Known about the structure:
Helix content: 40-55%
Strand content: 5-15%
Structural class: alpha/beta
Amino acid sequence: MTTDTLPARAEMIHAFTTRNAAYDGVFFTGVRTTGVFCRPICPARKPRPQNVEFFPTARDALYSGYRPCLRCRPMELTGSPPRWLRGLLADLEDDPARRWSDHDLERRGLHPDRVRRWFQKHHGMTFHAYCRARRLGLALEQIREGAGVSTAAYQHGYESLSGFNEAFRQLVGEPPTKVAGRDGPVLKVQRVLTPLGPMIAGATEEALCFFEFSDRRRLERQLDRLQARLSCTLVPGENEVLRAAAGEVDAYFAGELQNFSVPLAAPGTEFQRTVWDQLLEIPYGETRSYADVARAIGRPSAVRAVARANGDNRLAIFIPCHRVVGSDGKLTGYGGGLWRKQHLLDLESRVSPGGLFS
Length: 358
C-alpha cells in the first residue's frame, strides 16, 4: 500500500480520534510532538490533527524516524496475545488435555473475567469453552483411532460418560459414537496472526482447507459449506499442516517466499475448481482481469461466474484471488477488504525475484 492508496486524511483523522477498530492495520499514525507512532486504536490521549502524519505500514513509520508506542505496540501483529496472557497460552498448548479452574487462573495472578473477555473477543468463546473444545477434539481423534468412548472420556478429564457425551453433543451437534463412525476427516482450526490481522486456518492431517480473515463477512457460512462438502468435524487445535502454513505465511509477508508448498484441498463445483486452478497459474507480482481468467479457462462469456468463484475461494493468499482485478486495472471485490487486497499487491510488486525488497 502506498501513501496514494491510503484513505482520505479527514477519514483517517476521524478514525484515529474515535479509535475505530475497523482501521487497525489500514494505517499508522506518527505524532510529531512525541516522535512515536501508533495504531488507530491507541488508548493514549489524542494529539491535535496538525501534529500527525499517516503511514501505510509500521515499516514506513520506522524509516521516517518514529519509534513504536509503548501502549498500543504497533510493531506487534494485530490480535497478538498480550504479555500477561502468553504464559497461560504456552501452558495450554503444552498440555491441551488439562482441566483449568478459575482458581488455577487466580494462582497465576490472572483475573478469570479478564481472560474470559480476551478469549470471547478473539476466539468467539470463553476460556473454559475453548479448553473444553480442545479436550473434546483430542478425544475425538483418540476415538477414531480405535479407543473406546469411555476410555477417551476419562483420559481427557471427564468424570462421567454422560457428561462427556453431553459436552461432545454441544460442541459437534452429534454424539461421539455417531461422529466416530463417519468417514469424513477432523478439521483442526486455529488463528494465525498476520500483518493484515488475524486469519482463521483449517486443515486436515493431509491438506490446508481453509484460510480466511477472521473479520470477513460470511465467515461462518464459508465454514459451514466446507464442513458440508467434506463431511468433516471442526475442532480447535493444530497439526503439522497448520504449522507449515503459518510458517510459509510469515515468510510470504517478510518478502522471502513467493510460491507456497503446503498441500491444498479446495472442494467445490467443477467450475469453481477450474477457476481456482487458473488463479494458481497467475505469477507472483502480476495481475489478471476476470475476463482474462474467463478466456484462460475457455469460457470467455462467463466473466460474472468467474467473479463469483473468485469470491467463493476459501484459501485466501494461498489461492491468489487478490491478483484478479477489473478490466480497467482497478481493484474490485475482495472478501478481506480492498485495503488488504492493495496491501498484498503492493507487497508482491516491491519484492524482487531474489526475494529482497527493492
